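Usage

Read records sequentially. Each one opens with the input sequence:
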Amino acid sequence: MVDGDRITTVGPYEELAEQAPGARVRRWPGVLTPGLRQWHPLWLLRHCYHPDPREADELGEEPLWGEKLAALGDLTDTRWSGSVRRGVQRMLRYGTTAVASPGARFRDPLVATAVARSGLAVVGTTGAPGTLLGERPDLDPFAEGYDLRGTVHAPLSVGGRADLAVFDVPDETALRERGAVTCVATVLAGRLVYRAR
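and closes with the structure output:
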């Protein structure tokens, strides 16, 4: 159960429903987990361009990086700012509730502003993976081969911040196999910030 931005109780639905019969209930298919941690937010936000929906016909909908990013030429701060905001929104669609950065802060003002406005928790990089699997970071925190325990920011606990995600899969094994693209809802500090349509 959540009250405001905090978790007040953790347990099976049936028990919690008896304890608080008047509580608002949200129902989603699948597995409820703690929110996920993105180890590579700076790369995903400043070394990728996240096209505006109005650019989809020309640029597609997926993030552009490498040669495709270079082909865009020098981007204005306004265009980069929009890309960073859209990148943050994409992270939320993958169940991300925390982003890692050295010293638990961002020096890049565009990233720092977008992350602060979103409500994403900023955490340090202690325990970060040393190498990437693949040629670049992925929006899906499971892409580097971690299990749920290695991908979540913190466990759900009474008194803890209500950061959680819901995935339309039957169990944790299926979540790891299919990835965070199965996210149907992301909650940051008790606020529903993403819901699949």
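Summary fields computed downstream for this record:
- Residues 2-11+27-195 form one domain.
- The beta strands are 2-3, 6-7, 31-34, 36-38, 96-100, 121-123, 164-167, 183-188, 191-195.
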